[in-house]
Amino acid sequence: MWDYSEKVMDHYRNPRNVGSIEDADAVGLAGSLTCGDQLKIYLKIKDNIVTDAKFQTFGCGSAVASSSILTEMIIGKTVDEVRKITNKDIADELGGLPPEKMHCSVMGYEALEDALKNYKKDGYVDLDELNNVNNPQSDENKIICTCFQVTKKVIIDAIKNNNLKTVDEITNYTKAGGACGRCRGDIQKVIDEYYQNIKPEVKELTPTQWILKVNNIIETQISPELVKDGGDIELVDIKDKKVYVKLHGMCSGCKNSTMTLKLFVETTLKNALGDDIEVIEVN
Q: Are 120 and 29 in the same domain?
């Protein structure tokens, strides 16, 4: 038996905003009745703000709860704010979901994405009209799991939003690979491709952050090693990428002090902060 939070049980027993909106400005659909779960979400939008939201869900209690709380999360928010909501936000708002039920929050995310994808300020654009314009054979629209009709984009979004690393995690979040299993190799290829292509985000440090970083590396990584040999190091000044230091103890009079500065101190700082750093000794 899965362990559900009180909030999940509350939204399952007393779902909010059930129904449809006849003159909806945006409508989104996710899941499939043949797969056991389906969600349709209706949005009323005025002045770029979601003023009303309703849903129709066929599925388990987690699907109902995820859909119910999603409508509460988006009413009153701007379209731009709603676009930023992920399945993790939905699950977190519910107080968490069992791993095997995370696909329910993903279904809510997909339905919301579908609705906003088809929304234009001058009115709702039917999905069939979009399909006539967009290329259904694009790489992102490629169906990876034929049993549950899960596309490559859905899998990539699940990986990105939830830091998924294994095929079993993908199955929990999207159902892909949960039936015949023949697509599990293709799912693994999508995972491998994503992590091979992803580039780590490099944040530019402010001058103050950079100085603090240099000082922290000297105090925690460099100084303790020099102390072991009876020496020490002091940060004197920093000008641009030039780091001025003073050696103490045994290091100050050592004939190998230049080697220590270049091969140890400078190399350690370069490994952490970039190759354009130069360490200079001062007396």
A: yes
In terms of domains, do 105 and 227 share one? no
- What's the pLDDT score for residue 169? 92
Q: Around Cβ 63, how many Cβ atoms within 10 Å?
A: 24
The reply to whether 202 falls in a domain is: no
Domain span holding position 257: 207-281
145 and 107 Cβ atoms separated by less than 8 Å: no
Q: Does residue 189 sit in the same domain as residue 211? A: no
Mean pLDDT of 230-240: 90
Task: Enter the tokens of residue 57.
Answer: 């869900």
Judge if 63 and 141 occupy the same domain. yes
- How far, in Å, CA of 269 to CA of 277, rounded? 7
Q: What is the pLDDT of residues 170-220, one digit of tens each?
A: 999 988 988 888 899 999 999 999 988 875 555 677 888 888 999 999 999
By annotation, the residues acting in catalysis are 35, 104
* pLDDT for res 205: 76
Q: What kind and span of H or E run contains 69?
A: helix 61-74
pLDDT tens digits for 68-110? 999 999 999 999 999 999 999 999 999 999 888 888 889 999 9
Could you tell me where the beta strands, DSSP code E, fall in the chain?
26-32, 37-46, 49-58, 119-120, 123-124, 143-145, 150-151, 231-239, 242-249, 278-281
**Alpha helix segments (H runs only) across 84-183:** 87-93, 102-117, 127-133, 152-162, 167-174
pLDDT in tens, 134-181: 444 567 778 898 878 888 999 999 998 888 999 999 999 988 988 888
Apex 206 CA angle, 200 and 209, nearest 5: 90
The residue written with tokens 């939070």 in the block is: 5
